[in-house]
Structures are given as structure tokens and as C-alpha cells.
Write a structure and sequence with these properties.
The strands form four sheets. Strands 1, 3, 4, 5, 6, 7, 9, 10, 17 and 18 form a ten-stranded mixed sheet that branches. Strands 11-12-15 form a three-stranded antiparallel sheet, with no helix packed on it. The protein has a three-stranded antiparallel sheet with strand order 14-13-16, with helices on one face. The radius of gyration is 25 Å and the shape is globular. It has three helices and 18 strands. It has helices spanning 2-17, 118-123, 230-242, and strands spanning 33-37, 47-48, 52-56, 65-66, 72-80, 86-96, 103-106, 116-117, 126-134, 137-144, 151-157, 167-174, 182-186, 192-196, 204-211, 224-228, 262-263, 284-287. A hairpin with a 5-residue loop joins strand 5 and strand 6.
């Protein structure tokens, strides 16, 4: 018995002695600006909750850092005429209310109200341009307001997709027949889904969404439907595909998901924000 214990002890120490630490140098490029600027318009409210989150990319093993030192963050509002040409221009200035957060909201220190009224958004045809000045570079992203239809019904189902630890949510809405529609559904907990009306144009449409957990009785689920244009739909579709958990932690993404944030430093044409020709200089994220 003592011999066996002695041999096991030697074998265990041998395994420990064979351990070796390998340091892997992961290539890291210069940090890029990341913009999270999804403005949700609730027509039952007076103001749009404007909130733009700025951060910067980091190495694989590093923490993502908020951008707390932006020199300028503004939203330019250009009211368009029937030909799509700007008639009036206004500006909303944003600032950090909580230092170090990287979250920029309407600046309350101005004499004029910097908040964005819902009535201004829904009653006018406006081109919105987000401008960010950071580390000597100037970035811009443009978007227009896209409406959505309401959700007709939400109800829980009893079906499952893969296993019993799921919750089925049944969603029903009616598509607007007068235009081609793209929708983004927000199911909370970082769960999103995109759909377009190619096969149900102008019709009532019902589908099931499955959460991968069973919720305790009394849990409140908040579901949102947002209108989107084709570009934002394509961006979210690709983003969802690359973050749905099917890829391994070291699998190379199919492509860099480029949004509508462009580096416009020294831009020679202020009417077009994506003609810089600076292939390797761009921001990430989206403003919509």
C-alpha cells in the first residue's frame, strides 16, 4: 500500500512539473469609436429619450472602455422640403450627466431646451445627423425617422422548440400595406429579431418567439416593435447572426459588421457623409 501511495505521489508531482505557461501575443489595432444610438420614439410621450452611448474597441482579453472624453456630441436636425432639400436646420447638444459613463444625453445647461420633442419627429420630414468629435477625428452618422405598426396581441404559448426549458411568446401584428416594411423586435434581455413583409404584405401576421428559459410566475416581459429602413435591417440581421451563440469563442467572424458611422475628418463634401475614401478609418455601431 505504501509503495502505491509513493508511486501515485511521484506521478502527481510529475504531472505538475509538466505544466507550462504559454503567453500568446494577440494583435491589437488602434481603438475604434463604437456608437450605440438607437432612439426609440414613443408617440404617447412628449420627448424622445435621446441617449447615445460611446465606447471604444479593445483587445480580446481587455475590458471595453467608455468614451468619456468626446470633445463634441451633437445631433443636427435638417427639415427637408418635398424635394428632399434642407430648409431649416437646428442642433441638439449632448453631454454626460454621469461623469465616466460614456452615455451622452441632452445638455441641460443650455438656455434653450436641448431635448427632442416627439411632435417634432412625427410631424416633420427631418434628416438627423449625429456628429462626434473624438481624439482629433470627426465622425458622422445619418438617419431618418421610420414608423412602425402597433403590436396587436402578445400571449404566452405552451410549445417548445428544442427542450422544455423554454418559454413561448406568441406575437401578432398587422402590416401596413402602403409601403415596404422592415421591423426590429426587441424581446428584452438582449434578444432581437428582424423581419420584413415580403411574404405577408398588408396582412395580419403571427409568429412564436422562444426564450431559452422558464420564467417564474409574475415575471414581466417587455416587448417592443421598431420600424427600420433596409440598411438598418441588414445591419441588425448580420449582427444578430454573429452574436446568436452558435460561433465558438475563437471562431473568426464572417465579416466586420459595419454600421452607418463614418470618419468624415477633412471631408470635402458636406452633403455626403460616406465619401471619405478612408478605407481603414471608420467607426462601428449605428445611429437610428
Amino acid at each position: 500500500m505504501r509503495k502505491w501511495l509513493f508511486l501515485l505521489g511521484i506521478w502527481g508531482m510529475g504531472l505538475t512539473a509538466c505544466e507550462d505557461v504559454i503567453e500568446v501575443e494577440v494583435p491589437v489595432e488602434e481603438p475604434r469609436l463604437v456608437v450605440e444610438g438607437l432612439l426609440r420614439v414613443d408617440t404617447t410621450q412628449v420627448f424622445v429619450p435621446v441617449e447615445v452611448k460611446l465606447s471604444q474597441t479593445a483587445g480580446f482579453f481587455d475590458q471595453i472602455k467608455p468614451v468619456t472624453d468626446a470633445d463634441q456630441v451633437i445631433i443636427i436636425l435638417q427639415v427637408l422640403d418635398e424635394n428632399g432639400l434642407p430648409m431649416e436646420t437646428g442642433t441638439k447638444s449632448l453631454t454626460q450627466l454621469e461623469a465616466g459613463s460614456g452615455i451622452y444625453v441632452p445638455d441641460p445647461s443650455f438656455d434653450a431646451d436641448q431635448r427632442l420633442r416627439v411632435s417634432t419627429v412625427v410631424e416633420n420630414d427631418i434628416l438627423y445627423t449625429l456628429v462626434v468629435q473624438w481624439q482629433g477625428r470627426r465622425y458622422a452618422a445619418q438617419t431618418e425617422y421610420t414608423t412602425s405598426v402597433p403590436i396587436d396581441e402578445l400571449r404566452l404559448g405552451e410549445g417548445t422548440l428544442f427542450d422544455e426549458d423554454e418559454t413561448e411568446l406568441i406575437v401578432r401584428f398587422t402590416d401596413d400595406p402602403d409601403r415596404d416594411n422592415f421591423y426590429l423586435f426587441d424581446f428584452g434581455f438582449g434578444n432581437f429579431l428582424v423581419t420584413e413583409d415580403t411574404f405577408y404584405k398588408g396582412q395580419e401576421f403571427e409568429f412564436s418567439y422562444f426564450y431559452d428559459e422558464n420564467f417564474a410566475p409574475g415575471t414581466e416581459l417587455q416587448v417592443g416593435i421598431l420600424g427600420a429602413d433596409r440598411t438598418f435591417y441588414n445591419y441588425m440581421d448580420l449582427l444578430i447572426a454573429q452574436t446568436d451563440g452558435q460561433q465558438g469563442p475563437f471562431q473568426t467572424p464572417v465579416a466586420t459588421v459595419r454600421g452607418n458611422v463614418f470618419d468624415v475628418t477633412n471631408l470635402d463634401n458636406d452633403q455626403v457623409v460616406d465619401n471619405t475614401g478612408q478605407v481603414n478609418s471608420f467607426g462601428l455601431g449605428y445611429f437610428a
